[in-house]
Amino acid sequence: MLWVFVAGAHVVWEEMVSACWCGLLAALSLLLDASTDETATENILKAELTVASLCGRLGLVTPRDAFITAICKASLPPHYTLTVLNSNAANLSGKSYSILGQTVQIISPSSESHQQVVAVGQPLASQPQGTVVLTSKNLQCMRTLLNLAHCHGAVLGTSWQLVLATLQHLVWILGLKPGPGGALKPGRAVEGPSTVLTTAVMTDLPFIANILSRLFESSQYLDDVSLHHLINALCSLSVEAMEMASGNNKEPSLFAVAKLLETGLVNMDRIEILWRPLTGHLLEVCQHTNSRMREWGAEALTALIKAGLAYKHDPPLAQNQRLQLLLLNPLKELSNVLHADIRQKQLESVLQILQSQGDSLGPGWPLVLGVIGAIRNDQGESLIRTAFQCLQLVVTDFLPTMPCTCLQIVVDVAGSFGLQNQELNISLTSIGLLWNISDYFFQRGEAITQELGREEEALQKQAQEKGETLNRPFHPAPPFDCLWLCLYAKLGELCVDPRPAVRKSAGQTLFSTIAAHGTLLQQPTWHIVVWKVLFHLLDRVRTSSTTADKEKIESGGGNILIHHSRDTAEKQWAETWVLTLAGVARIFNTRRYLLQQLGDFFEAWEVLLNHIQSAALSKNNEVSLAALKSFQEILQIVTPVRDSDKAGDAFAAIGVPPVLIDPLSASGPGRPLVRSDSLVERLTRYNGAELQAPPPGEESALEDSALWWSAWNTWYRTGTDSTRPPSGPTEKFSFIPSQPFLTALIQIFPALYQHIKANFSMEDLKKLGVILHGAVSVPISSDASPFILPSYTEAVLTSLQEAVLTALDVLQKAICVGPENLQVMYPAIFEQLLLFVEFSCKPPQYGRMETKHVANAKYNQIQLFAPAEWVALNYVPFAERSLEVVVDLYHKTACHKAVINEKVLQNIIKTLRMPLGLKYACPSESTWKLAVSSLLKVLSIGLPVARQHASSGKFDTMWPELANAFEDFLFTKSTPPDNVSIQEFQKNEAVDVEVVQLISTEILPFANFIPKDFVGQIMAMLNRGSIHSQSPSFTEAEIDVRMREEFSKVCFETLLQFSFSNKVSTPQEGYISRMALSVLLKRSQDVLRRYVEDERLSGRCPLPRQQVTEIIFVLKAISTLMDSLKKTQPENVDGNTWAQVIALYPTLVECITCSSSEVSSALKEALGPFKDFMQPPVSKVQNGES
């Protein structure tokens, strides 16, 4: 039909149509209903189509809709009205039979229709309602309807609703299902009786499907308004379908969703105008309860987004950021959907987008990363795994292509994967990704810094314009540093994750990252790292460790067995505490030169020491020992001053004139961004840090000593608390520090002392003494003892005892080379060592703890003790080594004023009295032997000093102490063990003899400098020694040897030697001589008399061997005396002595009757010398009597 536009004709046409359309419609509808001939039907339909399109063009909505409705009704089965969806289908009578195994229903045509039935299907309704039939006329009308939509779509306007609704129902009845891209394909109905199609219609279906697709493809030729009509109609259809499908899991009608997808795909060039309504509706579909509906909604939405990003827009997406964000936005919106299947679809499409368009996402990155990071613990493993694949792809391939402002988001997302608790391996791998990200930051540092700097300026400008302040995390730090801080903060969070494996991995990564890349940070940023990252982490770990559960964990999930050292939450947290503390200490050690330039280094140092102290005092051996290792680490720090010197020397050595390298200009503001592999760069950085420090003058030295004293206080508190014995009766579970812990504690002291010796006072020394004593007294648990204790036969020190002696040795050497005022400390060191010496006989007590002493239990019995028992160490080797140290030290210091004033010699003798007195009763035989040899050595040095200061009275109290020590040792109350061999006994006697020789060479010759009482005691002792003293249990044969004859003889000779000393220089010495001789002569008289009596009484029986030996010894002594008298000047012997000598004669004569031949021969020798004095000159006698 030719349209001829005449001015004003429009109005006329409208009038014409308005006048006749009602009649036309009635007539045509009736004809159409009655027509049975295909050609006639075709003509009638053509007429209706023509009128409908004409009305459309003229904009007459009502007649247009009426004609379209007529065609629609004719397309649908009889009585199938859209408004009455629940009308029952005609009751069809029929029987069924099978063709080729397919159930086919033969349906008798209804009375109203004489058409051939071509299809049977289900009506699209919310409730199942039996079946409906389609005739060939219905399909003919449907083709006309498609034709109308295809050719006249532009004029349909709101009637699209009618057309599409009808098509939707027809498609449903025919059982067409959407395929990829939204095209419809013949498919089988899922529920209810099978759809039955005749062969005729089967061949027709692809054609119908094709026309349907072409219909929506042709939507690209519609103008914008018509397109909107189409989209709106599809959306409202879809809403109906959603309502119908809600609440049941029946197969929904997907016609509208599929066609929305098709329409969107063909209109990509103007996607902006339809994108919001299209995606807005599809997002609603994605939240539907019916899973098939949701699935298609997501399929349609993700397909549209992928197509949109892949389409070659003009201008391209890279230059049209707004469009790109518009396209990606629905993807982000999908994150709010709670259904896992939708999220899975979303993440799969993200993965595909990354693989195909990853390089060109640009400003879309925050959206994409937001989608990847929107994971929650309740989403199940597979979702998290898919999301993580996306993240891995981003980190491995796309970091360089994304804007630097997104890097922080990447860090956050990686962190959130670390924190999810569904899949442990993903958590661990994401920590690895964080390490890779940090590596990327390091390599691209300069570029990132510049880009972030530009971005920062722009943001700053915007904020100023709006009059706001710039707000971002860690704000005062520069943007690049903030990036690092975000990374550290994320790793810090992961370090306190509930899972031990994650904590361990995160801790190692955090400290490795700071160690490897910390140099990139600006100096002030370190302040934030120390306080906000490291100390914050330490606080959290400490809190978690101290409150962790002590319940045993049976297994690690599955069949994993847990080692006993990790089988409670507390033990697992202990490992984290150890790792964290060690990491922080290492940073303080390696970065100290940098940290010291921060204003509050001292406060930070105090906080770190506080953490070390609380870890060292924790009741967990692993933590406490590790704390001390960290303590040792931070104490081995060299002061920055020396480092800068080294740096200078190194430059000189390399031959680089230091002037040329200006560290500040060489690498930006104190921040070398180059890799720090070459020495020059490393030194540059070192110097760069140095230049900002104040010149190393007194100020830094002062601060330094404050640091060391602070460390000493921590050491002292730790030592005091850990070695303090339990106060009350100990419970089973009281915590006793382990030997390795105490050893490490004591080993810290020498290093620490080097830094504090200048002001180390007597007070401090006393504190140290308490700790050393406490540490040595701590027993060890019996299950550890076989590994720590030397066997009892070996004289080996434990490492703790070695450490204690080393500490004292360091002190003593420092005092030796130190100034005069330090030497007042000598006596305190002696006192400490002497306390240790006492341990040999009296092991220390640890509170009121019951301990077994190894000394009393043979070593191999230790394993038999009950496991809860504690074993005291074998202190003998330690005490003996301490004694050697005492002797050695006394050797060096005997003449020091302090040593003399503080009566050190007297204290040594007093301490040695115990082992000397116990002698054979000492726990170890070596002890008294060492004690006596030490006494001899000390006296040989100390006695001359004592004589020298005799007049000052400082040694007055020492002499009685010494006399008692001699007495206790030479006349011990303990008996030698029965199994002592004769050789041993002779050796022991030789030791006694040595003591007497010392008396004769070092003491008696100087009697005039020595108090009288002391000399008297010595004489009485020699006298007692020259009388036989023996053990009555010896056999006859041994008596000769066992009577200590040698000892008696030496005592006697010493007595004699001082009796006739012709060097009588003072009356005192003469007094000693007279006293010694009179004692001796009186004793000889007594022995002889008793012998004569016993001999007379015994008759024929021989006297006991020991008495015979005694008389022989006395007779020999008398002959020795006579010889001495003969050789002595007569004036040296006083009359009293003569009287006693002469008085012996009659007693000797009485002994002649004895029956023993040995006694007789000794008697002969004794009587012989008397002949020389038988006739003494008269003058001499007178003198003697005067």
UniProtKB/TrEMBL annotation:
Entry's transmembrane regions: none
UniProt keyword Signal present: yes
Signal peptide stretch: 1-19
Pfam families: Mon2_C, Sec7-like_HDS
Ranges where the Mon2/Sec7/BIG1-like HDS domain occurs: 313-392
InterPro entries hit by this protein: ARM-type_fold (IPR016024), Mon2/Sec7/BIG1-like_HDS (IPR015403), Mon2_C (IPR032817)
PANTHER family per the UniProt record, alphabetical: ARM REPEAT SUPERFAMILY PROTEIN, NUMOD3 MOTIF FAMILY PROTEIN, EXPRESSED
Protein's recorded name: Protein MON2 homolog
Organism: Eleginops maclovinus
Lineage: Eukaryota, Metazoa, Chordata, Craniata, Vertebrata
